[in-house]
Specification:
By secondary structure, the protein is an alpha+beta fold. It has four helices and three strands. It has two domains: 93 residues, K homology (KH) domain (GMP Synthetase, Chain A, domain 3); 33 residues. GO terms for molecular function: ribosomal small subunit binding.
């Protein structure tokens, strides 16, 4: 059984708190439906890289706008986290767009296309054998 490192526990707690704070406390109308997909904390707990996704948004301009809003609010978010989590030092927050979801969707669609092509070829081969 693997023991969780402190950085993993802090990352999980940050992810939960940030998800709530972003949804409930940031009132900027430019902010879309943001999901905190993962958080990675440096070994010294100095930095936290927060990876976000946007529901239904693939436009680069909208993604950049949402990242700007979050980066502008990072001081507020850090202060709120300091009130909610007992840490000697709250990590510096760095926001990034998580492209893994988009890549996963793209790969899934490519696999679906390949399977459909394979089925069509298989059906064509079966028809040729019947003739």
């Amino acid at each position: 059984m693997r023991e969780f490192k402190r950085t993993d526990r802090v990352a999980d707690q940050l992810q939960q708190e940030l998800a709530v704070l972003i949804q409930r406390e940031i009132k900027d109308p430019r902010l879309g439906m943001v999901t905190v997909s993962s958080v990675k904390v440096s070994r010294d707990l100095g930095y936290a890289d927060i990876y976000i996704t946007l529901l239904g948004e693939n436009d680069a301009a909208r993604i950049d706008e949402n990242l700007k809003v979050l980066r502008h609010a990072r001081g507020f978010l850090r202060s709120q986290i300091a009130n909610r989590i007992k840490l000697r030092h709250v990590p510096e927050l760095r926001f990034h767009y998580d492209e893994s979801v988009v890549r996963g969707q793209r790969l899934s669609s490519l696999i679906d296309e390949a399977v459909a092509d394979d089925r069509r070829r298989h059906e064509d081969d079966d028809e040729d054998e019947v003739r």
